[in-house]
Design goal:
With 427 residues, the chain is of the alpha/beta class. It folds into three domains: 205 residues, Rossmann fold, CATH 3.40.50; 149 residues, 3-Layer(aba) Sandwich (Rossmann fold), CATH 3.40.50; 32 residues, no CATH class. The strands form two sheets. Strands 3-4-2-5-6-1-7 form a seven-stranded parallel β-sheet, sandwiched between helices. It has a six-stranded parallel β-sheet with strand order 8-13-12-9-11-10, sandwiched between helices. Helix 2 packs parallel to helix 3 and helix 6 runs parallel beside helix 8. The chain is elongated and about 70 Å long. It starts with 10 loop residues before the first helix and ends in a 26-residue tail after the last helix. 40% of the residues are buried. Bound molecules: adenosine monophosphate. Adenosine monophosphate (AMP) binds next to helix 3. Adenosine monophosphate binds next to helix 3.
Length: 427
């Protein structure tokens, strides 16, 4: 398990990473961050959902360090409007404690605002290839300072016409550069671009873990909101004989923390363990020991506890949130069904999680059966803010699949942290 503190990043970036709730580096991050910080060209073969965006942005932001001059020093070429916005948002989130500046330019809409953003002075430019060339040829982009070039989701750029376009892009900038190329798949065209463009690259191939244990039976429930998830969890936990040793996985520390507190109020503090990155190492070890030794039935945690740990006799894994790093699903459910024992994995899925569930099913090449929520579980109305947040997320997913998709939400509002409803004390 590798924490971000082990890389040569700085406080500003580590604080931003912590705010995003990332607790440990993913496989691609573990390999790419030191290589990029070491000045090497990188060829990364890794799908979305593996954390590849932060894998190149974090070292890039560290190297660029602070705002300097007016012209971009790093260029990130991406295939679609949606990805360019997404990369821009990740830069915004990761650079929030630095003074680094960026602009995002892509076709399909007027260039005026994009040009204005560049003119203010930038350190990083995120661009689709066509729009980059247009703005360059019109004199709006100065490329002389570009020392870092990233090509992201290269497999989607790879038709023959792109190769010509790409060579023209390369001609606009200085030859002495560090080059990074990321692609979900390896094809002859990607190999060709890599050969043209990278100098003795470090090759990183991330094969996500896809094998789920046959001893684990999997199912998912459709639930409209957080409160409904909570009600189902309470109902399931009534089965004390069956659900003897349960890990509940949440997607953020904030959710794990408030769900943990909620359950502690109901079952007593000593009967529910909460483990996440904000707890000290010693607390985490002690909690884990108590759970291992069957002293406590319930463990609420983030993906921090998903990897590697060998805890015997876990009967149930509950995915209170569907994981967005899809491989984490495999790690999570691997906490049960160990040593030939059988285990059960239950995933709670809201409407925005459906997309992620489908991606997980693709990854593990299995259909996970849906089971009905028991009738006696109360399904409350979804609060307005939670509903909007899910709709925004669905818009983002649709645009990711189809950049032409015009969703109901074009703004990029910050998503506020959610909190658990107040418990009414012991039941
Ligand atoms: P990507 O593969 O870059 O599209 O990232 C997929 C998702 O994983 C995004 O929602 C990221 O915010 C999230 N993510 C990236 N790195 C981490 C990490 N180390 N821990 C948890 N989530 C991450």
């Amino acid at each position: 398990m590798i924490s971000f503190r082990e890389f040569r990043l700085n406080r500003q970036l580590l604080d931003a990473v912590a705010d995003l709730g990332y607790e440990q580096a993913t496989a691609i991050q573990q390999k790419a961050i030191p290589a990029i910080l070491g000045g090497q060209d990188v060829l990364g073969v890794s799908q979305t959902g593996t954390g590849k965006t932060a894998a190149y942005l974090l070292p890039l932001l560290r190297i660029l360090n602070y705002a300097q001059g007016n012209d971009a020093r790093a260029l990130i070429i991406v295939p679609t409007r949606e990805l360019s916005i997404q990369v821009g948002n990740t830069i915004r989130d990761l650079s929030k404690y630095t003074d680094l500046r960026y602009a995002v330019v892509f076709g399909g809409q007027g260039a005026k605002d994009q040009i204005a953003a560049i003119k203010k002075g930038i350190d990083i430019l995120v661009a689709s290839p066509g729009r980059y060339l247009d703005l360059y040829l019109e004199g709006h982009i100065q490329a002389k300072k570009i020392k870092y070039l990233v090509l992201d989701e290269a497999e989607r750029l790879m038709d023959k016409s792109f190769i010509g376009q790409f060579h023209r892009i390369l001609e606009t900038m200085p030859q002495k550069r560090q080059n990074l190329l990321f692609s979900a798949t390896m094809s002859d065209l990607v190999r060709k671009i890599a050969a043209d463009f990278l100098d003795f690259p470090i090759e990183i191939h991330i094969q996500p873990e896809v094998k789920t244990a046959e001893t684990v039976s999997q199912a998912w429930y459709s639930l409209p909101n957080m409160r409904a998830k909570l009600n189902l969890l309470m109902e399931l936990l009534k089965d004390e004989a069956g659900m003897k040793k349960v890990i509940v996985f949440c997607k953020t520390k904030a959710i794990a923390s408030s769900l943990g507190k909620y359950l502690q109020r109901l079952y007593g503090e000593e009967n529910v363990l909460v483990i996440h990155g904000n707890k000290t190492q010693q607390t985490r070890i002690n909690s884990m020991l108590r759970f291992r030794n069957d002293e406590v039935r319930l463990l609420v945690t983030t993906d921090l506890a998903a990897r590697g740990l060998d805890i015997p006799d876990v009967t149930h894994v509950v995915n209170f949130d569907t994981p967005v790093i899809y491989e984490d699903y495999v790690h999570r459910i691997g906490r049960t069904g160990r040593a030939f024992k059988t285990g059960v994995s239950l995933t709670f899925v809201n409407m925005a999680d459906r997309y992620h569930l489908e991606q997980i099913e693709k990854l593990i090449r299995q259909k996970i059966p849906q089971v009905k929520v028991p009738r006696n579980v109360e399904i409350p109305e979804t609060p307005y803010e939670e509903q909007q947040e899910m709709l925004r997320e669905i818009d983002r997913q649709k645009r990711k699949e189809n950049p032409e998709f015009k969703g109901a939400f074009h703004d990029k509002k910050e998503v506020k942290g959610r909190t658990m409803p107040k418990s009414k004390g012991r039941r």
